User: Fold Putative F420-dependent oxidoreductase from Bogoriella caseilytica.
Amino acid sequence: MSQVKIGVQLQPQHAGEYGLIRDAVMRSEDAGVDICFNWDHFFPLSGKPEGYHFECWTMLAAWAEQTGRVELGALVSGGGYRNPELLADMARTVDHISGGRLILGIGAGWFERDYEEYGYEFGTAGSRLRLLGEYLPRIEKRLDALNPAPAHEIPVLIGGGGERKTLRLVARHAHTWHAFGDLETLQHKSEVLARHCAEVGRDPGEIARSTSWPGAEHAQGFVDAGFTLFTVGTSGPDYDLDEVQDALAWRDAQ
Assistant:
């Protein structure tokens, strides 16, 4: 198997019975995916706005018990949705349940309805990024203080592409950077990230690059640009894995 990893984001929307999601996790692991992600929202992001939806972190704990090989995480957790010390403790606990397979995905948050209906302050993009910048060191400090410690060094995945603030946080805190965009855009943002890394004295090669699956005809270009994690998103109720199978076939041919 090559260094390239294939993830699947099993979006917890439009599945009226949790068993549909549990089955999709089983099918994904059996198919050979490297990582099973969900997302941290409280309402559907596409399709019927009032459709079925389940919560992220309680689901990750169930996945940790259900699976035996795949890495697990949220793509991504909303940075302002939980006290950061609590989030660190939740992550540590799920990491132990999984035997050391958790990825701590986190971002600044953006879906206004989540904030309004659950009583969080939406603020501005700038204020949400400032909060994320305050929370990341607190998460790291709590992870270092917990007893027992995490089952492994929990890798932090930061999602976002803002060049002045988000990528600076990636340079300081992330093991993996997840971003959206075409190849030219992501090549440019990688250059910006490298400059931020230089400013904080970090080797940009320490940070893995992640993006959505671009299709087999385009994937090699992203690999050449340093991207090694590709994720396919799929929703309920069917959780169709055909595109995941295509990505896995491409990975295994490398």
Q: What stands out?
A: The chain is about 45% helix and 15% strand. The longest strand covers residues 227-235. The mean pLDDT is 97. The radius of gyration is 17 Å.
